[in-house]
Amino acid sequence: MKKKFKCEIDCANCAAKVEAAIKKVDGVKDASVNFLTQKFMLEADDDRFEEVLKAAVKAGKHAEAEFEVEL
Predict the structure, then answer these.
(1) What is the pLDDT of residue 48?
(2) Sheet with 68-69: strands ordered across
(3) What is the pLDDT of residue 22?
(4) Can you give the pLDDT at residue 16?
(5) Which residues of 18-51 are buried (b: 16+ CB within 10 A; e: fewer)?
(6) Rounded CA gap, 45 and 18, in Å?
(7) What would the pLDDT profile of 10-63 be if each residue is shown by its tens digit?
(8) pLDDT for position 62
(9) By three-state DSSP, how is residue 20 classified?
(10) Could you tell me if 1 and 44 are in contact, meaning their C-beta atoms sit under 8 angstroms apart?
């Protein structure tokens, strides 16, 4: 499953740092964080999507405290 979410991120460098951290999360097939559009895309298995999403948001906030996702 692939879903997009509205997010808040301050700069392109922060977005790259958050994206790299999220891609390391177990279960993440692909992820992108776009500073210009303020969008976060996550791809993970359907049966674990919610679990992986929570872990991805946590990893993103750990990498950059200003990272916010509208769920």
Answers:
(1) 97
(2) 28-34, 39-44, 2-8, 68-69
(3) 98
(4) 98
(5) bbebbeebeebeebebebeeeebbbebeeeebee
(6) 20
(7) 999 999 999 999 999 999 999 999 999 999 999 999 999 999 999 999 999 999
(8) 97
(9) helix
(10) yes
Tell me the three state secondary structure of residue 44.
Answer: strand
User: What's the CATH fold of domain 2-69?
Assistant: Alpha-Beta Plaits (3.30.70)
d(CA 46, CA 67): 24
Report in angstroms the alpha-carbon separations of 13 from 4, 18, 45, 60.
20, 9, 28, 13
Selection from 65, 53, 54, 63 nearest residue 20 by Cα: 63
Q: Cα–Cα distance between 66 and 30 in angstroms, integer? A: 22
